[in-house]
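Dear H.,

Thanks for agreeing to be a second pair of eyes. The structure we're designing against is below in token form, covering all 277 positions.
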């Protein structure tokens, strides 16, 4: 995904027509998730996130934005008080590449004092990668290869879930000119996903003896960390709802190929003739 993003940027930045309407910048903020280990608490356990932003302005109202974002999301039953007896927790990196369309409520052109600021909404499509991990005795274990809900076993015959998926980003933002070539903004976006395994939790508890014998003993330990330890067939997560994640923070962008005015007489005469005609 990183190579694809870099290739797209090279093509765009080397095009004179694109460069005149282009912006390039940075995203600095945080990321969090909503799912089985945190059903509804927005911004709970938010972790730092960073990214690269490219914008192409079709006109003062419509902008194409390409994001390459990286963050971490975490969930913890004890901290969010979702299901303390279940006692599950995880962390996962999120790497996202997404094209979005921004719709400005007010006309906005970077560097134009007549269009100083605007709020906007955005939406698009994202490709993202995740990798849920859990801590046990100070060591983090990658959960997908362990098959904590019976994946990779002959008894339950479940296929491992993919670590690459798609999501639908949408959200709101605000941006403002802070100079002739720089804009500053803030943005909050949610991502509706089509996977229920960002947290490695979705269906029922399975037989720990099967996990220990066909996968690894640590798989059985991480699959059921409740005080009961006798939950075979009981609900571990909610497979009817998919996981969400979010990026929120500030965006600083710079105009690409900003033209500088020349003070030479020939240039002034040329500009005068343009205005005259």
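And this is the sequence the design step returned. I haven't edited it by hand at all.
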């Amino acid at each position: 995904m990183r190579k694809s993003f870099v290739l797209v940027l090279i093509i765009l930045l080397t095009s004179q027509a694109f460069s005149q309407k282009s912006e390039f910048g940075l995203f600095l903020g945080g990321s969090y998730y909503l799912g089985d280990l945190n059903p509804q608490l927005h911004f709970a356990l938010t972790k730092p996130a960073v990214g690269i932003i490219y914008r192409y302005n079709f006109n003062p109202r419509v902008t194409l934005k390409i994001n390459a974002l990286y963050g971490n999301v975490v969930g913890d039953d004890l901290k969010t008080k979702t299901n303390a007896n279940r006692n599950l927790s995880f962390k996962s990196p999120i790497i996202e590449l997404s094209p979005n369309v921004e719709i400005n409520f007010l006309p906005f052109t970077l560097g134009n004092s007549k269009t100083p600021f605007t709020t906007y909404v955005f939406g698009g499509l994202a490709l993202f990668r995740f990798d849920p991990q859990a801590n046990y005795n100070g060591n983090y274990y990658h959960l997908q290869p362990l098959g904590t809900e019976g994946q990779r076993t002959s008894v339950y015959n479940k296929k491992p879930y993919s670590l690459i998926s798609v999501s639908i980003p949408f959200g709101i933002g605000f941006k403002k000119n802070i100079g002739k070539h720089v804009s500053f903004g803030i943005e909050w976006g949610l991502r509706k996903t089509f996977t229920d395994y960002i947290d490695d939790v979705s269906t029922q508890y399975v037989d720990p003896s099967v996990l220990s014998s066909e996968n690894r003993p640590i798989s059985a330990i991480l699959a059921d960390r409740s005080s009961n330890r006798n939950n075979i067939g009981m609900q571990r997560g909610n497979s009817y709802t998919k996981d969400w994640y979010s990026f929120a923070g500030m965006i600083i962008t710079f105009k690409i190929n900003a033209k500088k005015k020349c003070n030479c007489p020939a240039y002034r005469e040329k500009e005068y003739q343009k205005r005259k005609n």
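Two observations from my side: The chain has a mean pLDDT of 90. Residues 90 and 196 are 14 Å apart (CA to CA).

Warmly,
E.
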